[in-house]
Specification:
The protein is an alpha/beta fold and about 290 residues long. It has ten helices and 14 strands. Helix 5 (about 100-115) crosses helix 10. It comes from Bermanella marisrubri.
């Protein structure tokens, strides 16, 4: 077992990026953490951490060793969980990255219900659309929608989403209502993640490059701009539900809406996924299996 000494401390330092933070995480003294890591480096005959007065970072060898050690610790945790009682007690923190109205209105409440079934589990949600580093930032999984770049991550389909184009009665009265997506080239469009909007005609997909006076990666802000008559928005149907029902917005270009935008659960491609993440992912997939936008 001496071969395992210092590994837990090394992983904690790598993830916390400091000895003091790692000591606090493991409820140990900073000197103990430092000694354990130093002994590990001496036993391996290689420097794992580059230390300065301000920060601690991984060397190239440390990066490779950290990846293997993280897998080892996750595997041991999964082994412990696999022989636990049938009534599983999840502990620790489930860290999830998500963004947008759908995540706020549907994903978050679903995970709240999941948390109620596991009172010893903490959940941390980061509402940000950027691509996260699962290893360095400690995320268990992320919720993303649309086309995904090939990043070596595992992507599991959560739901198929339908898009809707809408504008305020004020905007349509002033600028007229477009009758075909190509007309959007001459309209003010409110942008989210991209300026190429995907439509469908005669079962064929095509995109239109649009532009306009407002751009934001926050769907709620784009929705407000649309309600204020600043232009036309094109987002998932669920984003518009209350605004359409209240008459603040009107659906347009209904015959051309795209029905092929997918929401995904994305996570790191590794052998061992913590049970808290595996069960949460299964819970979400089950909850949304019959979901209709």
């Amino acid at each position: 077992m001496s071969n395992f000494e210092g590994i837990q401390e090394f992983v904690a330092v790598a993830e916390a990026q400091g000895f003091s933070a790692a000591a606090k995480q493991l409820d140990a003294s900073t000197s103990h953490i430092s000694r354990q890591v130093a002994r590990l480096e001496e036993r391996l005959g290689v420097q794992l951490l580059a230390r300065t007065t301000r920060m601690v970072s991984l060397t190239d060898a440390g990066e490779r060793y950290y990846t293997q050690c993280r897998e080892l610790i996750d595997g041991l945790q999964q082994a412990d969980e696999s022989v636990s009682d049938e009534s599983i007690k999840l502990t620790g923190t489930l860290k999830v990255s998500a963004a947008g109205t759908f995540a706020e209105q549907f994903i978050a409440p679903c995970l709240m219900q999941f948390a109620k079934s596991h009172p010893e589990l903490s959940i941390e949600m980061d509402f940000n659309s950027r691509m996260v580093n699962f290893v360095e930032e400690g995320f268990d999984f992320a919720i993303r929608y649309g086309r995904l770049k090939d990043s070596g991550l595992v992507a599991r389909r959560l739901i198929q989403r339908h898009l809707m184009a809408a504008a305020s009665p004020e905007y349509l009265k002033q600028f007229g209502e477009p009758t075909h997506p190509d007309d959007l080239k001459h309209h003010k469009c409110l942008l989210t993640n991209n300026d190429h909007w995907l439509f469908s005609e005669n079962q064929q997909s095509f995109d239109v490059k649009v532009s306009g006076p407002w751009r934001s990666n926050n769907a709620n802000v784009v929705l407000q701009a649309c309600e204020h008559g600043m232009g036309i928005a094109y987002m998932p149907v669920s984003s518009f539900e209350q605004s359409i029902n209240s008459g603040r917005l009107k659906p347009i270009l209904r015959d051309y809406w795209s029905h092929g935008i997918t929401s995904w659960i994305v996570y790191q491609n590794r052998r061992f996924l913590p049970m808290r993440a595996r069960l949460a992912i299964d819970y979400l997939l089950q909850h949304f299996k019959d979901w209709d936008e």
